[in-house]
Amino acid sequence: MTAHADPSAWAQGRERWELDRRPAEVLLIGSQVAFGSVGMNGVLPQLGTARVVPLPTIVLSNLPHYPSVHAAPMPAQWLADSIRDLDALGLLDEIDSVCTGYFASPDQVTAVADALAPLLERRADLRVLVDPTLGDSDVGLYTDPAVAPALRDRMLPIATGIIPNGFELGLLGAQDATQTDAESAARALLGPRAQWAVVSGGSAAGGRTLTDLVVTRDDAQRLEHPLIPTTVKGTGDAFAGALLAALRRGSGITAAVSDAAAAVRALLG
Asked: Mean pLDDT throughout 138-145?
């Protein structure tokens, strides 16, 4: 019997076993590095005191840009079974948000989408933020190319919002070669649950500013921010975390994007 069928069972287990007995608030799915500020390490600090349940898709010693790296992708079945374990504990009936980032394989995408399906059937208003972590213009792809169509086919239809960069937008929109501008391409990715897409970090004004494009079904806004030249990685993860934090505070999407951009600038000094 699952805890959402018998809430007292989970409450008693938490009381007996858990040092932190607060309700869960966010299910975070993505990469985990032992050293570095990418993946879930980039998202978590931005969520402050929220009770986050982190579920790794891959565990790495450090960024692959260093001379050596060791990585262990999680089996797709493990991800699916772990989500079901969390559901059986009643945790998924407590959260207000799901946030997904890096996937190492299309099988992982399918497993997570399938495991989340029963949750979304009973919680139609649950926020699902999809950060399609596929690559960037300076380094190209950093995952299996087959992850892009898997995200487009399985995760975008259940997303409330998506936050690709320009490089990722092109990969996700490759199915429709007629889309030639970012606004229409982003709008074409909005699934049945989606409220918005944010295309982050485009360049403008001769490279002196960055532009975040906020697209809804009926509108589009471009928010310009000062460019801080950097080679560091993890800014997109920090942006996703700060954006989710602002949304959880009740901000609208445009205000949330402004807050998230300011948070990243503060990290860059």
From this structure: 86
Burial (CB count <10 Å: 0-12, 13-18, 19+), residue 153: middle
Q: List the one residue out of 22, 21, 41, 20 whose CA is nearest residue 30.
A: 41
Q: Compute the average pLDDT of residues 98-110.
A: 98
Average confidence (pLDDT) over 32-56: 97
Question: CA–CA separation, 115 vs 108, rounded Å?
Answer: 11
- Determine the pLDDT at residue 3: 42
CB 166 within 8 A of CB 212: no
What's the pLDDT at 231?
82
Most distant CA pair in the chain, distance: 60
pLDDT (0 to 100) of residue 176: 46
Taking only the tens place, the pLDDT of each residue in 200-236 is: 876 555 568 889 999 999 999 999 988 888 888 999 9
The span from the CA of 137 to the CA of 127, in Å, is 29
